[in-house]
């Protein structure tokens, strides 16, 4: 009896020693491998940035490289444990197919990310309207596009939603046109109002002279004569000019006695 216990004890010690070494080796491979993956990914990103590769492509490539290398580290760790990775890959492939069928939407996002990278409707830093969100593009990853609106929120839009709808890129062109409609009363001086609007645009240093600013009577409304103004600015100056012109017109009209009508309703009481 003592001999059998000793035999089992020796066998247990042998197996525990053998598997302890494998477990330790697997853990070390994973820890060192993950560290190496981060270093390689970081180095690759720096090299791509140094080569002036588009930021959107850099972010996407970084995510893809990290995922692929980390998968290789996991497989190496499993192999160190003595697990047949060939069989594991077969099981992983079957599981991936099943998961892929269940997560068709997520895979569609990955495909949409590839389309965004290839066709480049926008890049990181552009101000866009896409997928129901409007703001500055902060990142494009495998599954989503991160957009920051002007109020400093963070909106995460699935890539499939970005590709499936219209995309308006306000930063694509170096120049943008600022359009406004201003109304004056029918009894006000038409020529004075037009001259005032032209002066406001001409005196704004951010308004470009080529193409030249434009002012014209665009509509005879129910309660006002409406002017349309158009001025070209650098894209970065768009909102500054947009809001400053509205304020400048109101102040100038008040100073020169030009009225800005507003809708009115006449109520008649029958006794």
TrEMBL record:
One of its GO terms (molecular function) is mechanosensitive monoatomic ion channel activity. GO terms for cellular component: plasma membrane. The keyword Zinc-finger does not apply. Keywords: Cell membrane, Membrane, Transmembrane, Transmembrane helix. It is found in: Cell membrane. Residues 106-172 form the Mechanosensitive ion channel MscS domain. The keyword Cell membrane applies. The chain crosses the membrane at residues 20-37, 57-82, 88-119. Residues 181-260 form the Mechanosensitive ion channel MscS C-terminal domain. It is a multi-pass membrane protein. Signal peptide: none annotated. Residues 64-104 form the Mechanosensitive ion channel transmembrane helices 2/3 domain. Belongs to the MscS (TC 1.A.23) family. This is Small-conductance mechanosensitive channel.
């Amino acid at each position: 009896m003592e001999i059998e216990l000793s035999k089992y004890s020796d066998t247990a010690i042998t197996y525990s020693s053998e598997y302890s070494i494998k477990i330790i080796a697997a853990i070390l491979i994973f820890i060192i491998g993950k560290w190496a993956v981060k270093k390689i990914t970081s180095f690759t990103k720096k090299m791509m940035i140094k080569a002036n590769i588009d930021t959107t492509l850099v972010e996407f490539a970084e995510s893809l490289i990290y995922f692929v290398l980390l998968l290789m580290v996991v497989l190496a760790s499993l192999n160190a444990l003595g697990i047949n990775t060939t069989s594991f890959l077969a099981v992983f492939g079957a599981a991936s197919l099943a998961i892929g069928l269940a997560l068709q939407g997520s895979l569609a996002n990955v495909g949409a990310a590839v389309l965004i990278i290839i066709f480049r409707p926008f890049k990181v830093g552009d101000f866009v309207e896409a997928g129901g969100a409007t703001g500055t593009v902060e990142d494009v990853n495998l599954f989503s596009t991160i957009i920051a609106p002007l109020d400093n929120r963070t909106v995460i839009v699935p890539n499939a939603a970005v590709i499936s709808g219209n995309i308006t890129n306000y930063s694509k062109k170096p120049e943008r046109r600022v359009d406004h409609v201003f109304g004056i009363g029918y009894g006000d001086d038409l020529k004075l109002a037009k001259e005032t609007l032209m002066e406001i645009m001409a005196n704004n240093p951010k308004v470009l002279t080529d193409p030249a600013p434009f002012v014209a009577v665009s509509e005879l409304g129910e309660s006002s004569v409406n002017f349309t103004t158009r001025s070209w600015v650098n894209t970065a100056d768009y909102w500054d000019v947009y809001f400053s012109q509205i304020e400048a017109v109101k102040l100038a009209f008040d100073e020169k006695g030009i009225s800005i009508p507003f809708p009115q309703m006449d109520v008649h009481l029958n006794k």
